[in-house]
Amino acid sequence: MSDFRAVLISKEGEKGQKAEPTTLTDADLMEGDVTVRVTHSTLNYKDGLALTGKAPIVRRWPLIPGIDFSGEVEASDNPDFKPGDRVILNGWGVGESHHGGYSQKARVKGEWLIHCPDALSNAEAMAIGTAGYTAALCVLGLTDHGVSPASGAVVVTGAVGGVGSTAVALLSKLGFNVIASTGRASEAGYLKSLGASEIIDRNELSEPGRPLGKERWAAGVDSVGSHTLANVLAQTKYGGYVAACGLAQGMDLPASVAPFILRGVSLLGIDSVNAPKEKRIRAYELLTSQLDKDALATITSTIKLDDVIAAGADIVAGKVRGRIVVEVA
Questions:
Q1: Which residue ranges form the domains of the chain, and what is each CATH number?
Q2: What are all long-range contacts of 237-240, with beta carbons under 8 Å and residues at least 24 apart?
């Protein structure tokens, strides 16, 4: 039985919690038919909420957070995986109700895993992570409904974040005219380097707006929710599509039915947690073929496992740009 390092969140009193690095053994792992030696994880907004306790993400105590990981199979009772296989996990309640990726070892169900594409290193897979994989699902949602560069511009909200940055880079590579919405004017150069053709201040979208506004874009990718999503919908052109995948501003949607019944706008819900394996594989195929690795490197920074607690507070406070890879091994 071997020791390994992990970050563990435990209850502290009636309402509080404590996150700290610790040493565990194989006996602390949860049920599953595949054991993975984790090499890398990543930091998403949801991870920040779990680490800080700002939202009730963790549903089981104590728990290792981290909704993503990549690594190599150490042992397997699943016929789809063998020792030495490189694998990726995104979602499935890992880091919420099952021990997650901020650990040098994980035991999970094989059905939650996909093989890591040969074209990606473990670190690159986590530079993509759930944020990038979710962005790819959003892009596929739009293109599967016939949205193309000829349709018109696509707005991306929360553009400096992980989902937004990847969406901007992907859409630009596919030939779309991308309008990036951000509250950080200082990041305009960064967003243009990813391919954004226009930058708008998030205040244009984040305040209560009219049921219908001027038609500005053919489609949208929204990771913000609340008034921002309502305004994106209100300013989408006739027959357009908006892919919604996040709630950084809030879970509410203070909108009217006007965009739907007067302009035929469609709202596409994007779920990354329980998406079937076929969709996951398609998303990574898109990312592998279209996401420029130089662009990926531009939006990525790397931290050590012991630094993830402080970084979790930073991402919730809106201080993080792009993607953060966590070196676990």
A1: 3-116+299-327 (3.90.180.10), 131-269 (3.40.50.720)
A2: 237/152, 237/263, 238/263, 238/264, 238/265, 239/263, 239/264, 239/265, 240/147, 240/151, 240/152, 240/265, 240/266
Which residue is associated with the tokens 């193309």?
148
pTM for this model (two decimals): 0.91
- Partner residues linked to 244 by β-bridges: 222, 269
Bridge-based pairing state of the strands 113-115 and 154-156: unpaired
Instruction: Check if the beta carbon of residue 276 is closer than 8 Å to that of residue 90.
Output: no
Burial (CB count <10 Å: 0-12, 13-18, 19+), residue 59:
exposed
188-196: long-range pairs with CB below 8 Å, 24+: 190/160, 190/298, 190/321, 190/322, 191/159, 191/160, 191/165, 193/295, 193/298, 194/165, 194/168, 194/169, 194/295, 194/298, 194/299, 195/168, 195/169, 195/171, 195/295, 196/156, 196/159, 196/168, 196/172
Identify the pLDDT of residue 318: 87
> Residue 254: is the preceding peptide bond cis (ω within 30°)?
no
Q: Which pair of tokens denotes residue 215?
A: 């038609």
Q: How far apart are CA 135 and CA 138, in angstroms?
A: 5
Per-residue pLDDT reduced to its tens digit, 113-139: 999 999 999 999 999 999 999 999 999
Q: For 196-227, how does the pLDDT look when each residue is reduced to its tens digit (9 = 90+)? A: 999 999 999 999 999 999 999 999 999 999 99
Q: How far does CA 20 lie from the centroid of its chain?
A: 23
| Alpha-helical regions (H) of 195-328 | 203-206, 226-234, 258-262, 277-290, 293-298, 308-316
User: Which tokens is 244 given?
Assistant: 């919604």
